[in-house]
Amino acid sequence: MALLELKGVSLLTSGVERVASVTASVDAGQLVAIVGPNGSGKSSLLGLMAGLLTPTRGSVLLDGRLVSSMGLRELATQRAWLGQSTPGADNFTVAEVLNWGRIFAAGETSDAQSALDEVVEVFEVQDLMTARLHRLSGGQRQRVHLARIWLQGARITLLDEPDSSLDETGRSMLRGAVQECVRAGRTVALVTHDRGWAMSEADLVWEVCAGRIVVG
Amino acid sequence: MNVSSGGRFALIMMIGVMAVGVVFAASLVTGFADISPQIVWSIRAPRVVLTLVVGAGLAVAGGLLQGVFGNPLAAPSIIGVSASGAAGASIGAALGIPFNSIPLAFMGVIIAGVGLIVVRSIASRDGKVNSTALLLGGVAISFFSLALVLLATPFVNREAGRSFSFWANGSFALATWSGVIAVAPLVVVGLVIAFGIASRVDPLSLGSIAARALGVDADRVTQYALVAVVLLVAPGVTVVGIIAFVGLVVPHALRLFLGPRNTFLLPASAVFGALLVASADFISRNMLAPAEIPVGAVTALVGAPVFLVLLRQMVRRGVMST
Amino acid sequence: MLGAGGQLVGQDETSERRTGVPVVTLGHQIDIEKALEVDPTLVLVDELIGPPEAIDALKQSGADVVSVPPVWNLADVPQRVAALADSVGASDAVAAQLGSALAVSDPAPASTSPRVAFLYLRGPSAVYLLGGSDTGADALIKAAGGIDVGSAIGLKGFVPLTAEALIEADPDIVLVMTEGLASVGGVDGLVKLPGVAQTDAGAQGRVIAVDDRVLLSFGARTPSLVASLREIFGSVERE
């Protein structure tokens, strides 16, 4: 059974159909790349998959269950989502922000510390732990947020253009982290403009145009 | 977690509580009249207890508003809660509800709640609150409410001293035990709610969508926070009038020492808000005894320069956030 | 009393009303039109009345405007009488006679003098003041054989009423003006003012209300006022 399923999902906002009757599915352990021109509905699609947007028609199922029937907290333990940009939390330290990923979604467990150490290493934020977010560069902040949602320990991770504010080093770190994740059994779906990487690495590529998946 | 911030919290709380103890004792023994059990019990004790309760309520409300709306200017008096609480009390008094009573406190809560709902719905679009619009709306509500107080005042002239100046500047001179009983339980409920949601207010600073993705129901937390704010502020206003600056200055000052984590910030705000208002009333009562300086004037005289210094610190550090 | 009554053409609101003589003031101010209407040749005012335009208008109309100095204590009453007598042309003998009739003798100080607080009350504006020394009321209270508590605790003039001040003052009786008392809702409302309920006066409801126009007039009605007060004070035993 597929981990995440979209069945005839449409999204209509302010009179515009952003996502038009999409039916697709993602199996566990897959890496899905969502590509397409700007404004084609990629972010909306990802939001629907995350259960953060409610479809006007159709249904989204996670592990066979309707996403709309799941509580926010429960959803957070099953799936992680990171938007295109996450401003705010300027005054909090990196350590505090990372902690939110743990306590609100995952709940503190005994192996929490080692999970933290691992993620911190993967995203290379060890030296930044006591720094407040407003002191970090765009790329550093992105890494912190990636680490944060990684700590949710969710089965499927949804990323909206995670590489946009990263430099080349950052991007290769991200690619490494994603591959690591998938190897460890997690499922990742990400929106990206890096077609090259999408074509070579992804198990599934969804080409989105005008709210529909045209190839995939 | 972060050991040093927990340690700082403990230290600050100890200092705060001790200072409160000192001011409490000093307030009981100092005054124009010679000390006697009657004076202490029927005049000074309810007064100082009320200052502690009101001060704690105002400071925690300010901290909550700043955390939930991510706007450093958010404070009860700016968002209109204080003024509409006063309007509620004036209208209630004009209708014959006695002062220092529980029904009047509820009247203040209701009208303040209405004011907040109005402002919030005006400032929201698709469920998202524009904090600038909220503050501007709050200012408008404040002016409107104070005009209502002015209008209601002539109808209330049979009762003991509640002039417009009383409402606008605040005064603890008419504090009685029944006033304490009217206010304290509601403030305590507000504090319980505030401390209960404190940890969930932090991730709201990521924005409501990111917070929801984390499993934090931003809308519900915001609603609880607003209910708490009304309970923390409005009852006090019905007994004491409007005291400005406490909700703005105390959380900002504490944030500089304790950081933005609300689980530390809100309890500390309660203690230091209580300390600030109790101290202000001490000065208000004793500096020109037997005459009294309006306590809102004292908090403004002290609060405004402190706030400007804070502002400078914040600009220097590059942190203009909550 | 100075024999000039027949020549009175206009009076103010605080005077004992004489029929047939119009009132030419409005509130605490001279009503210019009414005052000019009665066409006076002599106008007696105290220093505090206004507006200045009205006084000028009266002067310009040819009237002789005489300002009588204010009196805040009983010793000055004869002086005022003399000034008045002078302006209306009464003889010195008549003036002296009147002066002694209005003089109030000092009472014998008693250990059971009641403690009296004078409160100035204005409900609508929430103005509540406690009187100390030099308010005029203190002189009256003393003349009537009481102790003015405001003066006793060291207050000068009027001071905003605070609970602690009043409790420290510890009055047996509260003296107020009738309109002031009405403006706070009578004795029931008075007792709700800061500190009142905790004093003997408040607890026992011992409140004396005197007509606003008479209390601080320091004129012809003062001796009878003092006598009445003396009687009441005498009946209150200091506990």
- Written as H for each helix and E for each strand, in order along the chain, the element string of chain A is EEEHEEHEHHHEHEHEE
Shape by Cα distribution of chain A: globular
Strand order within the widest beta sheet of chain A: 6-7-8-3-9-10
Taking all Cα atoms into account, the compactness measure Rg of chain B is 19 Å
CA radius of gyration of chain A is: 17 Å
Short description:
The complex is a heterotrimer of chains A (216), B (322) and C (239). Chain A has 216 residues and is an alpha/beta fold.
Tell me about this structure:
The complex is a heterotrimer of chains A (about 220), B (about 325) and C (about 240). In chain A, the strands form 2 sheets. A 6-stranded mixed sheet of chain A has the order 6-7-8-3-9-10, sandwiched between helices. Chain A has one domain (about 5-215): 3-Layer(aba) Sandwich (Rossmann fold), CATH 3.40.50.300. Chain A contains 7 helices and 10 strands. Chain A has helices spanning about 40-50, 70-80, 95-105, 110-120, 140-150, 170-185, 195-200; strands at about 5-15, 15-25, 30-35, 55-60, 65, 80, 155-160, 185-190, 205-210, 210-215. The radius of gyration of chain A is 17 Å and the shape is globular. In chain A, about 35% of the residues lie in helices and about 25% in strands. With about 325 residues, chain B is mainly alpha-helical. Chain B has one domain (about 5-315): ABC transporter involved in vitamin B12 uptake, BtuC. Chain B has helices spanning about 5-30, 35-70, 80-95, 100-120, 130-150, 165-170, 175-200, 210-215, 220-240, 245-260, 260-285, 295-315; strands spanning about 125, 130. Chain B has a two-stranded antiparallel sheet with strand order 1-2. In chain B, a hairpin with a 2-residue loop joins β1 (about 125) and β2. The two termini of chain B are about 20 Å apart. The model of chain B has no long low-confidence stretch (mean pLDDT about 90). By secondary structure, chain C is α/β, with parallel strands linked by helices. Chain C has 2 domains: about 5-100, Nitrogenase molybdenum iron protein domain (Rossmann fold, 3-Layer(aba) Sandwich), CATH 3.40.50.1980; about 115-235, 3-Layer(aba) Sandwich (Rossmann fold), CATH 3.40.50.1980. Chain C has 12 helices and 10 strands. Chain C is globular. The interface between A and B is medium-sized, with 34 and 26 residues.
